[in-house]
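Q: What does the predicted 3D structure of 1,4-dihydroxy-2-naphthoyl-CoA synthase look like?
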Amino acid sequence: MAFQDIIYEKYNNRAKITINRPEKMNTFTNHTLNEMIMALQSAWTDKEVGAIIITGAGDRAFSIGGDMTNEAEPQLLEKLPMPNLCAQLLQTIRTIPKPVIAAVNGYAIGGGHVIHVVCDLTIAASTAKFGQVGPKVGSFDVGYGSAYLARIVGEKKAREFWYMCKRYTAEECLQMGLVNAVVPPEKLMEETDKWVDTIVGHSPTSLAAVKMSFNADTESVWGIQSMAGIALNMYIDTDEALEAHNSFNEKRPPNYARYR
């Protein structure tokens, strides 16, 4: 299976999906998201795969979310809007009956942060940074990226993520329970593989049942996520979203006076 924006590997009863756009901080386009979904679906049905690793190419970023530059191509994949594909990717990670582990090698920001949040486990390099930028750039996530995040770090902290758009270190996220382990950057994949070695040695049916049991308590979030996708598709065409996008790219303060 040939891919353009990702690298798909299989070894030792695991699949590894690497977002391969390091020159763009591993931002994603519709095409990237579609390839990730295809890779996950391939791993889902592959009897040789017991767990899946998601990481980013290079040492700067896991992913900083959607490509918001003027060079991005939102028309890829038959004009299916990016929010719909994001929701589909997140739901695939959640519903695939195999553990999905995020190996966060650098910045996990915006949509990239949401991807790691929905993964079953997160192993982070000590140099990794985490955070949200939605309200700064004219975007939002009212499903897994917010409601489910609150289940992990608590309501107050989740609101801080979204209202303040701050950056958090790997150690801070470890204390919040948002990541499972922090290791030196050069040990990230070694440590991740150690965790996966243990996981793939366990009963696949038991792991699938446990994952679905964990998910059952938050299944309502998927409904919210679907609704949010519709709302975001409508919002991104508004003047307010355009002002947020333009001010971000032009590195100037936005003017939201008329929208308050």
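A (community wiki): The structure tokens above were generated from the sequence. Residues 30-45 form the longest helix (16 residues). The chain has one domain: 6-187.
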